[in-house]
Amino acid sequence: MKPYLEAQVYHCAYRFWVSVQLSHSKQCRIYGRNAHIEELTLDSKTMAWALQSDCKDSLLDICLGDELSWPAMRALGIGFWFTDVGQLRARVYLCMM
């Protein structure tokens, strides 16, 4: 991959992560406590940044951490931007266990 394309890919992932962090801090301010990831509301622009990234696995791991649950994944809009169906099924299956 050409360096400028690689920088754009990481830029997209970074924009998604920053949007998630901003949404989280906004929810903390609204609720007056540490908000759970399930309470996040992300817009389609944020999900488009994740869709354009090539490091979707890393994004999901960074955003979810140990909180692997379907409501958390749904709040991140994983069904819209996590394009590897096999890995998506495997992650959802792990949540349901």
Word description of this protein:
This protein is mostly helical. It has helices at residues 3-31, 44-52, 56-64, 70-75, 78-81, 85-96. The longest helix is centred in the N-terminal third of the chain and has 29 residues, at 3-31. The protein is globular and about 40 Å long.
On the 0-100 scale, what is the average pLDDT?
A: 83
Proportion in helices: over 70%
Distance between the termini: 38 Å
Rounded to an integer, what's the Rg over CA atoms?
A: 14 Å
Q: Class by helix and strand content?
A: mainly alpha
Please, how many helices? 6
Approximate shape: globular
What's the story with the biggest beta sheet?
Answer: none
Element pattern in H and E:
HHHHHH
Q: Which regions are unreliable across 5 or more consecutive residues at pLDDT < 50?
A: none
Count the domains: 1
Topology, number of strands: 0
Tell me what portion of residues adopts beta-strand conformation: under 5%
Summarize the helices and strands and which ones pair or pack.
Elements: H1 3-31, H2 44-52, H3 56-64, H4 70-75, H5 78-81, H6 85-96
Quick rundown:
The protein has helices spanning about 5-30, 45-50, 55-65, 70-75, 80, 85-95.
Q: What are the defining features of this structure?
A:
97 residues
